[in-house]
Predict the structure.
Amino acid sequence: MNKYKMAAPCMLGIEGLLANELKFMGAENVLAENGRVFFEGTDEILARANLRCRLAERIVITAGIFKADSFNELFEKTKAINWENYISVNDKFPVTGRSLSSKLSSVPDCQKIIKKAIVDKLSSKYNISYFEETCSMKKIRFLILKDTVTIMIDTSGEGLHKRGYRAVSNDAPIKETLAAALAELSRVRDNHIVYDPCCGSGTILIEAALKALNIAPGLCRSFVSESWQNISPQAWKAERESARKDIKNDCEFIAFGSDIDENALDIARENAKKAGVADRIKFDIADIKDFSPQTRFGTVICNPPYGERLLDFDKADEIYKTMAKVFLPRPGYSYTVITPQDEFERLFGRKADKRRKLYNGTIPCTAYMYYK
């Protein structure tokens, strides 16, 4: 049985959450670092992580990790990797990557050297000098950080945030993985009632519903490693069947989304339908100033528009003040608001019970959580 060293890149601030997610899946030797989580597992874990991870950006096999501060060292240590274990004679293996705070700062040069090293190794193993690269895609990714080189093989293809339900979005979408992180931080469960009064195209509520119903986020999409000869097709089949069986169709979860943009709400309804959770979410047009939930319990998760995104900063600040009037402390309710506004607590009028530094794309934000 194949066993791999793998990694799951993720947004900064959720490494611990992702590590717990992977441990729960049965991954071994899980280790969280800045922006990624390392782990080990079989073909089944590789397939399971791709299908079920809500927080990872992708799943990669870590082919090698080593120090290199010269191009010669990069070449020799890359060539020393047993590439024949990963790449077949006709596979495609393009090379992309990044270099940060390292002596080897030229990414194009590093790409060429890593590619040449892999070709040299495979040429000696397969006794050929030319590779047609016509079959399975084995994209090689590298990260050189402070002279430490990590060389990876992408098993996902498109990023894992692309669940397959969001064909279109409004002008300011929140990434699916960030929305899933907010649902996790808000401790959404299968009996919760979730609200988002600035729901836009519905991503937060859809991710909350997928979590509550235990619907694997990758269930309706494909992955590049499904076609690999060295990954058991039975592992993929078994993991997909297991994910389908684990869906909680009988849970009590329900959600309510509102927004002032009717076009965004139309998109939200279509996205929820594609995600298979349309019967769990009700969308209505409404202004946040009129937010007045009638249920006894509620979990409010909100990504309000802000200056860098849609509105000018003064209008964004007015929304925070309005939220203070409608997000009132009440038994059975919690509120999670993500924003880049450092003065949010002052504008909102209350100190958060808990805060979490996160990123919305490239914008540093804070999730402010109120549950008392």
